[in-house]
Amino acid sequence: MSAAGEIKGMTPPDIRSRKGQTPLVCLTAYTTPVARLLDRHCDIVLVGDSVGMVLHGLSSTLGVTLDMMIMHGQAVRRGLEHALMVVDLPFGSYEESPEHAFGNAARVMGETGCSAVKIEGGETISETIRFLTARGVPVMAHVGLTPQAVNTFGGYRVQGRGADAERIRRDARAVTEAGAFSLVLEKIPEQLARQITADIDIPTIGIGASPACDGQILVSHDMLGLFTSFRPKFVKRYAELGEQAEAAIAAYATDVRNRHFPAVEHLYVNAFKAGDFT
Ligand code: KIV
Protein backbone atom coordinates (compact mmCIF):
# COMPACT_ATOMS: atom_id res chain seq x y z
CA MET A 1 0.00 0.00 0.00
CA SER A 2 1.18 3.57 -0.61
CA ALA A 3 0.68 6.40 1.89
CA ALA A 4 -2.59 7.25 0.12
CA GLY A 5 -3.77 3.68 0.63
CA GLU A 6 -3.77 2.53 -2.98
CA ILE A 7 -2.28 -0.87 -3.81
CA LYS A 8 1.13 -0.84 -5.50
CA GLY A 9 2.11 -3.54 -7.98
CA MET A 10 0.05 -6.06 -9.93
CA THR A 11 -3.42 -7.00 -8.66
CA PRO A 12 -5.70 -9.94 -9.46
CA PRO A 13 -7.92 -7.68 -11.66
CA ASP A 14 -4.77 -6.56 -13.57
CA ILE A 15 -3.97 -10.22 -14.25
CA ARG A 16 -7.59 -10.98 -15.17
CA SER A 17 -7.54 -8.13 -17.72
CA ARG A 18 -4.51 -9.64 -19.49
CA LYS A 19 -6.67 -12.32 -21.16
CA GLY A 20 -5.55 -12.60 -24.79
CA GLN A 21 -2.83 -9.94 -24.35
CA THR A 22 0.95 -10.18 -23.95
CA PRO A 23 1.66 -13.51 -22.24
CA LEU A 24 1.91 -13.43 -18.44
CA VAL A 25 5.35 -14.31 -17.07
CA CYS A 26 5.16 -16.41 -13.91
CA LEU A 27 7.74 -18.27 -11.80
CA THR A 28 7.90 -19.73 -8.32
CA ALA A 29 9.93 -18.32 -5.41
CA TYR A 30 10.36 -19.41 -1.80
CA THR A 31 13.01 -16.99 -0.48
CA THR A 32 13.66 -13.25 -0.40
CA PRO A 33 16.76 -13.20 -2.67
CA VAL A 34 15.05 -15.21 -5.41
CA ALA A 35 11.89 -13.09 -5.12
CA ARG A 36 14.07 -9.97 -5.63
CA LEU A 37 15.59 -11.50 -8.77
CA LEU A 38 12.17 -12.36 -10.21
CA ASP A 39 10.29 -9.18 -9.30
CA ARG A 40 11.44 -7.03 -12.23
CA HIS A 41 10.71 -9.72 -14.79
CA CYS A 42 7.55 -11.48 -13.61
CA ASP A 43 3.87 -10.59 -13.52
CA ILE A 44 3.12 -13.29 -10.96
CA VAL A 45 5.38 -14.89 -8.36
CA LEU A 46 3.92 -18.08 -6.93
CA VAL A 47 4.98 -19.42 -3.56
CA GLY A 48 4.26 -22.96 -4.72
CA ASP A 49 3.93 -26.01 -2.53
CA SER A 50 6.67 -27.38 -4.82
CA VAL A 51 8.81 -25.84 -2.04
CA GLY A 52 8.42 -29.16 -0.22
CA MET A 53 10.21 -31.01 -3.01
CA VAL A 54 12.77 -28.46 -4.21
CA LEU A 55 13.85 -26.98 -0.86
CA HIS A 56 12.83 -29.50 1.81
CA GLY A 57 13.65 -32.78 0.04
CA LEU A 58 10.12 -34.23 0.32
CA SER A 59 9.16 -36.86 -2.27
CA SER A 60 5.82 -35.15 -3.04
CA THR A 61 3.95 -31.98 -2.07
CA LEU A 62 1.67 -33.87 0.33
CA GLY A 63 3.78 -33.23 3.44
CA VAL A 64 3.82 -29.45 3.01
CA THR A 65 2.08 -27.62 5.87
CA LEU A 66 0.31 -24.29 6.17
CA ASP A 67 3.08 -23.07 8.50
CA MET A 68 5.72 -23.85 5.84
CA MET A 69 3.73 -21.91 3.23
CA ILE A 70 3.37 -18.96 5.60
CA MET A 71 7.08 -18.89 6.47
CA HIS A 72 8.14 -18.98 2.80
CA GLY A 73 5.36 -16.53 1.88
CA GLN A 74 6.68 -14.01 4.41
CA ALA A 75 10.19 -14.36 2.98
CA VAL A 76 8.97 -13.84 -0.59
CA ARG A 77 6.84 -10.82 0.38
CA ARG A 78 10.02 -9.01 1.52
CA GLY A 79 11.46 -9.39 -1.99
CA LEU A 80 8.52 -8.15 -4.09
CA GLU A 81 7.36 -4.70 -5.12
CA HIS A 82 5.86 -5.22 -8.57
CA ALA A 83 4.76 -8.82 -9.19
CA LEU A 84 1.49 -10.28 -7.90
CA MET A 85 2.21 -12.69 -5.06
CA VAL A 86 0.12 -15.87 -4.95
CA VAL A 87 0.54 -18.55 -2.26
CA ASP A 88 -0.47 -22.20 -2.69
CA LEU A 89 -2.87 -23.62 -0.11
CA PRO A 90 -1.29 -26.98 0.76
CA PHE A 91 -2.91 -30.42 0.77
CA GLY A 92 -5.47 -30.78 3.57
CA SER A 93 -5.93 -27.07 4.17
CA TYR A 94 -8.95 -26.36 1.91
CA GLU A 95 -10.72 -29.59 0.86
CA GLU A 96 -12.80 -30.22 3.99
CA SER A 97 -15.28 -27.36 3.60
CA PRO A 98 -15.49 -23.83 2.18
CA GLU A 99 -15.43 -22.45 5.74
CA HIS A 100 -12.25 -24.37 6.61
CA ALA A 101 -10.67 -23.16 3.37
CA PHE A 102 -11.64 -19.57 4.17
CA GLY A 103 -10.09 -19.74 7.65
CA ASN A 104 -6.79 -20.99 6.24
CA ALA A 105 -6.79 -18.63 3.23
CA ALA A 106 -7.45 -15.67 5.55
CA ARG A 107 -4.53 -16.74 7.75
CA VAL A 108 -2.21 -17.05 4.74
CA MET A 109 -3.25 -13.65 3.37
CA GLY A 110 -3.09 -11.96 6.76
CA GLU A 111 0.27 -13.39 7.80
CA THR A 112 2.11 -13.22 4.45
CA GLY A 113 0.59 -10.18 2.74
CA CYS A 114 -0.08 -12.16 -0.46
CA SER A 115 -2.84 -10.96 -2.77
CA ALA A 116 -4.30 -14.33 -3.76
CA VAL A 117 -4.18 -18.05 -3.08
CA LYS A 118 -3.95 -20.98 -5.49
CA ILE A 119 -5.93 -24.16 -4.98
CA GLU A 120 -5.89 -27.39 -6.96
CA GLY A 121 -9.01 -29.04 -8.36
CA GLY A 122 -11.90 -28.38 -10.74
CA GLU A 123 -15.63 -29.11 -10.39
CA THR A 124 -15.24 -30.66 -6.94
CA ILE A 125 -13.64 -27.54 -5.49
CA SER A 126 -15.68 -24.92 -7.38
CA GLU A 127 -18.11 -24.33 -4.49
CA THR A 128 -15.11 -23.44 -2.31
CA ILE A 129 -13.76 -21.07 -4.98
CA ARG A 130 -17.14 -19.32 -5.10
CA PHE A 131 -17.19 -19.04 -1.28
CA LEU A 132 -13.65 -17.61 -1.14
CA THR A 133 -13.98 -15.12 -3.98
CA ALA A 134 -17.25 -13.80 -2.52
CA ARG A 135 -15.37 -13.09 0.74
CA GLY A 136 -12.33 -11.18 -0.52
CA VAL A 137 -10.00 -14.07 -1.35
CA PRO A 138 -8.92 -13.97 -5.02
CA VAL A 139 -8.32 -17.52 -6.25
CA MET A 140 -6.00 -18.85 -8.92
CA ALA A 141 -7.32 -22.29 -9.89
CA HIS A 142 -5.21 -25.27 -11.05
CA VAL A 143 -6.51 -28.19 -13.15
CA GLY A 144 -5.06 -31.00 -15.26
CA LEU A 145 -2.21 -32.70 -13.42
CA THR A 146 -2.77 -31.50 -9.86
CA PRO A 147 0.27 -32.84 -7.94
CA GLN A 148 -1.59 -33.02 -4.61
CA ALA A 149 -3.74 -35.77 -6.24
CA VAL A 150 -0.69 -37.87 -7.19
CA ASN A 151 -2.02 -40.90 -5.33
CA THR A 152 -5.42 -40.68 -7.00
CA PHE A 153 -3.78 -40.40 -10.44
CA GLY A 154 -1.23 -43.13 -9.64
CA GLY A 155 1.69 -40.92 -10.71
CA TYR A 156 2.51 -37.69 -12.51
CA ARG A 157 1.00 -38.67 -15.89
CA VAL A 158 -0.39 -36.39 -18.60
CA GLN A 159 -4.08 -35.76 -17.84
CA GLY A 160 -6.95 -35.21 -20.28
CA ARG A 161 -5.96 -37.58 -23.06
CA GLY A 162 -8.80 -38.96 -25.25
CA ALA A 163 -12.20 -39.13 -23.57
CA ASP A 164 -10.69 -37.70 -20.35
CA ALA A 165 -10.39 -34.31 -22.10
CA GLU A 166 -14.04 -33.59 -21.34
CA ARG A 167 -13.35 -33.85 -17.58
CA ILE A 168 -10.64 -31.17 -17.81
CA ARG A 169 -12.90 -28.93 -19.94
CA ARG A 170 -15.66 -29.21 -17.34
CA ASP A 171 -13.16 -28.44 -14.56
CA ALA A 172 -11.92 -25.33 -16.40
CA ARG A 173 -15.46 -24.05 -16.96
CA ALA A 174 -16.50 -24.78 -13.36
CA VAL A 175 -13.62 -22.83 -11.77
CA THR A 176 -14.14 -19.95 -14.21
CA GLU A 177 -17.85 -19.73 -13.37
CA ALA A 178 -16.98 -19.93 -9.67
CA GLY A 179 -14.94 -16.72 -9.97
CA ALA A 180 -11.27 -17.75 -10.22
CA PHE A 181 -9.22 -14.87 -11.70
CA SER A 182 -6.78 -17.17 -13.54
CA LEU A 183 -6.23 -20.85 -14.17
CA VAL A 184 -3.08 -22.98 -14.20
CA LEU A 185 -3.24 -25.80 -16.77
CA GLU A 186 -0.66 -28.45 -15.94
CA LYS A 187 0.56 -31.35 -18.10
CA ILE A 188 -2.33 -31.73 -20.54
CA PRO A 189 -2.30 -32.21 -24.35
CA GLU A 190 -1.40 -29.07 -26.29
CA GLN A 191 -4.63 -29.07 -28.32
CA LEU A 192 -6.75 -29.32 -25.18
CA ALA A 193 -4.91 -26.42 -23.51
CA ARG A 194 -5.41 -24.35 -26.68
CA GLN A 195 -9.17 -25.14 -26.76
CA ILE A 196 -9.65 -24.35 -23.07
CA THR A 197 -7.77 -21.05 -23.50
CA ALA A 198 -10.16 -20.11 -26.33
CA ASP A 199 -13.18 -21.37 -24.38
CA ILE A 200 -12.88 -19.56 -21.04
CA ASP A 201 -12.61 -15.84 -20.35
CA ILE A 202 -9.95 -15.87 -17.62
CA PRO A 203 -6.21 -16.11 -18.38
CA THR A 204 -4.79 -19.62 -18.58
CA ILE A 205 -1.25 -20.14 -17.34
CA GLY A 206 0.42 -23.17 -18.84
CA ILE A 207 2.97 -25.59 -17.44
CA GLY A 208 3.35 -28.46 -19.86
CA ALA A 209 0.33 -27.11 -21.73
CA SER A 210 0.52 -24.82 -24.82
CA PRO A 211 2.21 -21.64 -26.09
CA ALA A 212 -1.35 -20.47 -26.82
CA CYS A 213 -1.98 -20.12 -23.07
CA ASP A 214 -2.27 -16.56 -21.74
CA GLY A 215 0.88 -17.07 -19.68
CA GLN A 216 3.51 -19.61 -18.66
CA ILE A 217 4.83 -20.77 -15.31
CA LEU A 218 7.80 -22.91 -14.29
CA VAL A 219 9.32 -23.88 -10.97
CA SER A 220 12.31 -21.54 -10.74
CA HIS A 221 14.60 -24.25 -9.31
CA ASP A 222 13.77 -26.45 -12.34
CA MET A 223 14.51 -23.80 -14.97
CA LEU A 224 17.70 -22.69 -13.19
CA GLY A 225 19.03 -26.26 -12.95
CA LEU A 226 19.00 -26.21 -9.14
CA PHE A 227 16.58 -29.12 -8.76
CA THR A 228 17.86 -32.12 -10.66
CA SER A 229 16.21 -35.15 -9.01
CA PHE A 230 13.95 -35.49 -12.04
CA ARG A 231 13.15 -33.38 -15.08
CA PRO A 232 9.70 -33.36 -16.68
CA LYS A 233 9.61 -32.89 -20.46
CA PHE A 234 7.97 -29.47 -20.02
CA VAL A 235 10.98 -28.00 -18.19
CA LYS A 236 13.38 -25.92 -20.26
CA ARG A 237 16.64 -25.36 -18.40
CA TYR A 238 17.76 -21.75 -18.84
CA ALA A 239 20.83 -22.25 -16.63
CA GLU A 240 22.78 -25.03 -14.94
CA LEU A 241 23.30 -23.35 -11.58
CA GLY A 242 23.44 -26.68 -9.76
CA GLU A 243 26.47 -27.75 -11.85
CA GLN A 244 28.11 -24.35 -11.40
CA ALA A 245 27.53 -24.48 -7.64
CA GLU A 246 29.00 -27.96 -7.41
CA ALA A 247 32.12 -26.90 -9.36
CA ALA A 248 32.54 -23.93 -7.00
CA ILE A 249 32.15 -26.15 -3.92
CA ALA A 250 34.72 -28.64 -5.30
CA ALA A 251 37.18 -25.78 -5.97
CA TYR A 252 36.72 -24.52 -2.40
CA ALA A 253 37.30 -28.01 -0.98
CA THR A 254 40.52 -28.37 -3.00
CA ASP A 255 41.73 -24.92 -1.89
CA VAL A 256 41.07 -25.69 1.79
CA ARG A 257 42.80 -29.08 1.61
CA ASN A 258 45.84 -27.52 -0.13
CA ARG A 259 45.90 -24.50 2.23
CA HIS A 260 45.33 -22.16 -0.74
CA PHE A 261 42.33 -20.64 1.03
CA PRO A 262 42.24 -18.31 2.88
CA ALA A 263 44.92 -16.30 1.10
CA VAL A 264 46.53 -13.12 2.39
CA GLU A 265 43.81 -10.89 0.91
CA HIS A 266 41.19 -12.69 3.01
CA LEU A 267 43.03 -12.18 6.33
CA TYR A 268 43.22 -9.49 8.99
CA VAL A 269 46.99 -9.49 9.50
CA ASN A 270 49.35 -7.32 11.44
CA ALA A 271 52.50 -6.28 9.63
CA PHE A 272 54.17 -9.42 8.32
CA LYS A 273 57.53 -10.30 6.99
CA ALA A 274 58.13 -11.60 3.49
CA GLY A 275 57.97 -15.40 3.58
CA ASP A 276 55.42 -15.60 6.48
CA PHE A 277 52.82 -17.24 4.24
CA THR A 278 54.91 -19.34 1.93
O1 KIV B 1 3.69 -25.75 -6.57
C1 KIV B 1 3.99 -25.22 -7.66
O2 KIV B 1 5.12 -24.77 -7.86
C2 KIV B 1 2.96 -25.15 -8.69
C3 KIV B 1 3.38 -24.74 -10.07
C4 KIV B 1 4.15 -25.85 -10.68
C5 KIV B 1 2.24 -24.34 -10.92
O3 KIV B 1 1.84 -25.44 -8.44
TrEMBL record:
Keywords in alphabetical order: Cytoplasm, Magnesium, Metal-binding, Pantothenate biosynthesis, Transferase
Cell compartments where the protein resides: Cytoplasm
Function text: Catalyzes the reversible reaction in which hydroxymethyl group from 5,10-methylenetetrahydrofolate is transferred onto alpha-ketoisovalerate to form ketopantoate.
Protein name, UniProt field: 3-methyl-2-oxobutanoate hydroxymethyltransferase
Family of the protein in this entry: Belongs to the PanB family.
UniProt remark on cofactor binding: Binds 1 Mg(2+) ion per subunit.
UniProt pathway: Cofactor biosynthesis; (R)-pantothenate biosynthesis; (R)-pantoate from 3-methyl-2-oxobutanoate: step 1/2
Active site location: E186 (proton acceptor)
Domain of life: Bacteria
Presence of the UniProt keyword Cytoplasm in the record: yes
Named cofactor requirement(s): Mg(2+)
Classification lineage: Bacteria, Pseudomonadati, Pseudomonadota, Alphaproteobacteria, Hyphomicrobiales
Residues binding 3-methyl-2-oxobutanoate, per UniProt: D49, S50, D88, K118
Reaction equation(s) it catalyzes: (6R)-5,10-methylene-5,6,7,8-tetrahydrofolate + 3-methyl-2-oxobutanoate + H2O = 2-dehydropantoate + (6S)-5,6,7,8-tetrahydrofolate
The organism of origin for this protein: Mesorhizobium ciceri
Binding site for Mg(2+): D49, D88, E120
